[in-house]
Write the structure tokens for this entry.
Amino acid sequence: MTVHKFLPNSDSSITTLMLEKLGLQSVEDLYSDVPNDVLLKRELKLPPAMSEIELEKHVSERLSKNKSYPNYPNFIGGGVWVHHVPSVVDEILSRGEFYSAYTPYQPEISQGMLQSMFEYQSQICELTEMEVANSSMYDWGSALGEAGRMAVRVTHRNKILVLRSSSPERIRVLRTYCEPAGAKIETLEFDKKTGLASIDYLDSKLDNETAAIYFENPNFLGVIEEESESIVEKAHSKGALAIAGVNPATLGALKPPGKYGADIVVGDGQPLGVYPNFGGPIIGIFATRRDPQLLRQMPGRLIGLARLKDKPERYGYAMILQTREQHIRRELATSNICTNEALFALAVSVFLALMGRRGMKELGDHILAKSHYAQKRFEEEGFDSPFFKGPFFGEVSLQTSIRGVALAERLSEVGIIGGMPLGRFYPELQDVSTFSFNETHSLSDIEKLVSSVKSAK
């Protein structure tokens, strides 16, 4: 056995002692629960060791083969988006006092981090027009999973209705969270012509066992759910909760979920100052109405502000609600989420402070204008665009004469990333793709996309 100077436990005598204490014969016994047919059963095929200079050159050569933004325009969307990140966001995020205190277990020495989390909560409430927000979750999917379990606890019911026009990947996460707890997830079809929810069909599926309805606005197909208020009203008429999923970058132009009566709002703050990060880590948004029952069942952390009784001009920040298994008895915890994305919450907070109301409106207008310009250009080139006839925001659906996967491969060959082949998630839509547009796309990017799609079809 090789002894590594940085790994003291690699010494054979220490390994032997540890195995004896565990009652094991070999290190391999630790993996006895792994099925034999998935074990590697050979040494790793690693190249010979390189010097640091050689390794840097080797890695650079390998990385140069990647096709990524900003060298190539990205039109994928579908859950993680490319947006401009102002340089001041990176500057503040890299400060040591934030970077080293990202999860403040000692509030008395983490007041700056706690204040930033308090500001984040306040900004999310203002953006969504909800009344309470926690200090972040892992991502949109985990926030949805927690929202589903929360709805089951609050209503004492076990069925959750989900519009199939929601992200299929997030629906899978919802199932992973809720089905082991005894909840049933039932997906509802959308109108294949418009991409919108069918209110009558939804109403027929609602019953007294329904804990919640989940819908996204805009949905995964890029369509704006015009009847959001009706969806919420139908849920409330049966005593169910309405869970709305939102892309926060759209809320400067679209009606926020608090305006149409949502009980719980989930989403991802990634479009607001966070890079795509290869799909993660990103940051989940979670907000509710100011209802004591909802508040006490909300997962994660709440940061509050307290003033001294005799000196109200003096105040401090503290974690006032921590419904996690680490802080209260395990069986009473509402969530086993062990931390939050505090650094990314800070990024979102800085981004929103920079943008303000006017900036968020301009961002929404940019996304709307770019996507509608692209749709018009596709239409002028002979495409039936958009494929789904409902109102759309940011993402344009397009049917082509070749499968969506083949189209994405051909676009990659000419330096374009995207679109999203819907056939990956909807077997009946093999020849339909969605293309996402945002403020980083120039008109020349869009023209290149349109001409490339026309050539590929």
